[in-house]
From TrEMBL:
Xref: PROSITE patterns: ADH_ZINC
PANTHER family from the UniProt entry: ALCOHOL DEHYDROGENASE, ALCOHOL DEHYDROGENASE 6 (CLASS V)
The keyword Metal-binding is assigned to this record: yes
Highest rank taxon of the organism: Eukaryota
Recorded family membership: Belongs to the zinc-containing alcohol dehydrogenase family.
One GO-annotated biological process of the protein: retinoic acid metabolic process
Protein name (database record): Alcohol dehydrogenase 1
Keyword annotations: Metal-binding, Oxidoreductase, Zinc
Obligatory cofactor(s): Zn(2+)
Domain Alcohol dehydrogenase-like N-terminal positions: 27-149
Boundaries of every Alcohol dehydrogenase-like C-terminal domain copy: 190-313
Species of the source: Chelydra serpentina (Snapping turtle)
CC per GO annotation: cytosol
Length: 362
């Protein structure tokens, strides 16, 4: 898949309320949006069930521009790449956040009413995760919008729309890291570093950061990693290195890259009976994984984590309030801020490993 040109291609159609439809739509003016590894998967053609051309972007913050029938939500807001309808069996179950009325179960490239609200030169452009924040004006269902503090700086709190919430929640909610425990984080991008922040907040005693880019190690240490290692420095597979380092593997391992080889390595790196491995990285399109079933037979737990396990509409506003009260500081993940028309430069910074998070401003 050739890189997709995503600059200057969008034209907004005003939101339309479809009579009888349960889900009203809201038009949002995006003020700031981060570039996440998942957007890069879209550009590389490795995101599942994707129709092109598409407007990616899902880590944004903005203001309500206009409202649809029956909607009372007002500005400012964070679009939710995982909606929360509040009514389905998942939303009613306290143990899961994967709402059933989402793009996970139907086309994510069209709105729930099966329309697209974007055109370019008369041609339909697809939506991404129902929110498409790489557009100054975008339309989304009410269930995909969280109202946040009036004073929240949108150029910072956009990270709560995906990267920070995902990594922090993977440690706190999904793994439920215990004080004094040991953790290994594969991949030290914006999401992996947020896992580091979560493991430290949970009181882990050893936090091992793993990345093939040593430039990521300084920030990882600043955020709480006690050790950082590069798999390319060892002749043995990294899982064997970790098991030797820790005696019997770590209590919690996290894959935050999105590769099947590192997913299998992360599983094998945790303790053979009590270890928990959390898959955060998005699996590549059509991938299959093979692993020795004995790894699970002995008692390991293998879990996935989507947007950190948060019930998004309820939790993202609370996380933003926590930020306003200085309980967390994901600002340290922002290495670059660029005007939106330099979006391709932002992706180049990600590819070269020079950025953690680039924030684009409209
Ligand atoms: P990123 O590209 O900023 O970070 C990836 C990191 O992995 C980089 O530091 C790379 O150097 C490192 N890396 C690459 N290959 C290897 C390797 N073989 N061994 C060790 N390290 C390696 O991406 P990100 O932090 O924005 O996102 C990371 C993943 O998380 C990505 O797959 C993304 O799609 C996924 C994601 N998941 C969710 C979710 O809800 N589960 C949400 C957001 C992002
Ligand atoms: Zn993301
Ligand atoms: Zn739901």
């Amino acid at each position: 898949m050739a890189p997709v040109s995503i600059v200057n291609v969008t034209v907004l159609q005003k939101p339309v309320s479809i009579p009888g439809l349960m889900c009203p739509f809201i038009s949002i003016q995006i003020v700031a949006t981060g570039i996440c590894g998942t957007d890069d998967h879209v550009l590389k053609g490795s995101f599942p069930n994707m129709d092109y051309p598409v407007i990616p972007g899902h880590e944004g913050a903005g203001i309500v521009e206009s409202i649809g029938e029956g909607v009372t939500c007002v500005k400012p807001v964070i679009p939710l790449c995982l909606p929360q309808c509040g009514e389905c069996s998942s939303c009613l179950n306290p143990d899961t956040n994967c709402c059933l009325k989402t793009h996970l179960y139907e086309s994510q490239n069209l709105m729930p009413d099966k329309t697209s609200r974007f055109t370019c030169k008369g041609k339909q452009i697809h939506h991404f995760l129902w929110i498409s924040t790489f557009s100054e004006y975008t339309v989304m269902p009410d269930s995909a919008i969280a109202r946040i503090d009036d004073d929240a700086p949108l150029d910072k709190v956009c990270l709560f729309g995906c990267g920070f919430s995902t990594g922090y929640g993977a440690a706190i909610n999904t793994a439920k890291v215990k004080p004094g425990s040991t953790c290994a984080i594969f991949g030290l991008g914006g999401v992996g570093l947020s896992v580091v922040i979560g493991c430290k907040a949970a009181g882990a005693s050893r936090i091992i950061g793993i990345d093939i880019n040593k430039d990521k190690f300084t920030k990882a240490r600043d955020l709480g990693a006690t050790e950082c290692i590069n798999p390319q420095d060892f002749k043995k597979p990294i899982q064997e290195v970790l098991v030797e380092m820790m005696g019997h593997g770590v209590d919690y391992s996290f894959e935050v890259i999105g590769r099947v080889d590192t997913m299998a390595a992360a599983l094998a790196s945790c303790h053979l009976s009590s270890g928990t491995c959390v898959m955060v990285g998005a699996p590549p399109l059509g991938s299959q994984i093979s692993f020795d079933p004995m790894l699970l037979f002995t008692g390991r737990t293998w879990k996935g984590s989507f947007i950190g396990g948060w019930k998004t509409k309820d939790s993202i506003p609370k996380l933003v309030s926590g930020y306003m009260e200085k309980k967390f500081n994901p600002d340290v993940l922002i290495t670059h801020t660029l005007p939106f028309d330099k979006i391709n430069e932002g992706f180049e910074l990600l590819h070269s490993g020079k950025s953690i998070r680039t924030i684009l401003l409209y």
